[in-house]
Amino acid sequence: MEVSTILLLAAVLLLIGGLILLTHVGRAYTPTEGPRHDQHLATKRRGDRTMTDVVAGTAQERVIRWMEEGQAVLDSVRGMLHERTQLKMVAEVTQKEGERLRHEGDQLRAEVSRLTAETERLRTERAESAQWFTALMKEAASRLRIEPPPA
């Protein structure tokens, strides 16, 4: 499983957990169940409140803070997914460009090989022509021997 998928699943699980916790903490304050002991404690004067009120308030604050932080985590996950998509597109373009350059390199190597063979053929032909011309000149010189006039 990819890292981005794992991060997204973790963020979703964190949000679900926060909602469950908020629902659990919020039950003490729901009017549909009738008055509960916790509700009576919540309406007491500040000095009369018990430790349960403080813990419930702290838990509710933590859940709210956790949900706010969860939004930041989700934004980070979205950013990572967007960045992953962009990097994937860049990688695909780079891969295509690399493939094109490899193909072009293969063509250039074939052209260099062809030109090297052509150059070697022309060198051989030039050497043969030079030998032929030298032989022709020697034969012509031997036929045209001019003898020096008598003195």
Distance between the termini: 110 Å
Number of helices: 3
Q: What is the N-to-C order of secondary-structure elements (H for helix, E for strand)?
A: HHH
The total tally of domains equals 1
Give the low-confidence spans.
none
Structural class: mainly alpha
* Sheet with most strands: none
Portion of residues within helices = over 70%
> Using DSSP, what is the number of strands?
0
Beta-strand content: under 5%
Rg, rounded, reads 46 Å
Residue-averaged pLDDT, rounded? Answer: 79
What form results from the Cα inertia axes? rod-shaped
Give a brief rundown of this model.
This protein is mainly alpha-helical. The chain has one domain (3-136).
Describe this structure as you would to a colleague:
The structure is a single chain. With 151 residues, the chain is mostly helical. The protein has one domain. The protein has three helices and no strands. The protein is rod-shaped. The model has no long low-confidence stretch (mean pLDDT 79).
Features:
mainly alpha, 151 residues, 3 helices
Layout of helices and strands:
Layout: H1 3-26, H2 37-42, H3 51-143
